[in-house]
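Input/output pair, single chain:
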Amino acid sequence: MNIRHLLSASDLDRRDATAVLDTATEMAAMAGREVKKLPTLRGKTVVNLFYEDSTRTRISFEAAAKRLSADVINFSAKGSSVSKGESLKDTALTLQAMGADAVVIRHPASGAPHRLAHWIDGTVLNAGDGTHEHPTQALLDAYTMRSRHGRIEGLKVAIVGDVLHSRVARSNVHLLHTLGAHVTLVAPPTLIPVGVTGWPADVGYDLDAVLPGVDVVMMLRVQRERMTDSFFPSEREYARRYGLDADRVRALPSHAIVMHPGPMNRGMEIAPEVADSARSTIVEQVANGVSVRMAVLYLMLGGVK
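Output:
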C-alpha cells in the first residue's frame, strides 16, 4: 500500500482496497490454527486511542495487533489526563515521545485523525471520527459481501436508516463505489445529509420499493445520542416505515444478505428474528473485522509497500 495513513475510505484506490481484502482472506485462514499469532509486527507499538466508547472496534484492533505480535497500549479518555483538560495535540506529543508506530484513534470530532496525522511520525488509523468516516468498518463490510457473494463488482447494495449521522454509511459509499458496487441510500428525508447529491450513490425514500432489487441490505443504527432535534415522529413510526422485519425480508431476492455494523436497536431498525436469521451476517462481520484489521496493520506497518 502506498499510503502512510488510513483516514478515509477515499484514501484507497481499487488496487489497495483489493490488496486489503485479499490479505484478510489469508489472515482469516489463521483462525483455524492452534497458534494464531504471526511475528510480523514484533517490536512495533500500536496505541488504541479511544475518546468514545467502543466494544467491537477497540477489541478488534487490539486482537488484530496482538495476533501480529505487536505491543499494544490501550488509551481511554476516561481515567487519563484528557479528563483533566489535556488537548489532543498534547496527548499526541506524549505518544510521539513514547515511540508509537501506529495510533488507532476514535474521536467524537470529525477530522480529529487528520489533525493527529500532522502531529506524530507514526501511522494514523481512523477508527471513527464524529459523523465523518470509519474506513476499516467499510473494509470489513466489503470483505463480508465478497465472502458471501464471491464478488463486489456489480452488487446492488441498499444502505438504510440514519445516514445523516452515520460515518459507516459515508465510508461504505466511497469504498463500494471504488470496488464497482452500486449503492442506494434509503432513509427519511430528515436523515439524508445535505450535499448527498455529490456522493456516488442513488437516494430513495421508499424501502419497500428498493428491497426486491438488491443483493445486500445494510441497516444502520439510529444514533439517538447524536440527535438534538426530532427527526421522525416516533420509534414505532420509524420501525413501520424503515425497519427490516420478517415481511420485508420475504421481499428480498433469495440470495440477498442482511448486514448491520452494530450495535443494534433490536425491534427498531431490525427485528430480532431477522438479526438472528441465516441471511444475517452480523456475527460474521465481527469476526471478519479482526482479519481485515490484521490485514491493514500488516500492509501499513510490516508488509510490502
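The chain has two domains: 9-134+286-302, 135-282. The domain at 9-134+286-302 is CATH 3.40.50.1370 (Rossmann fold).
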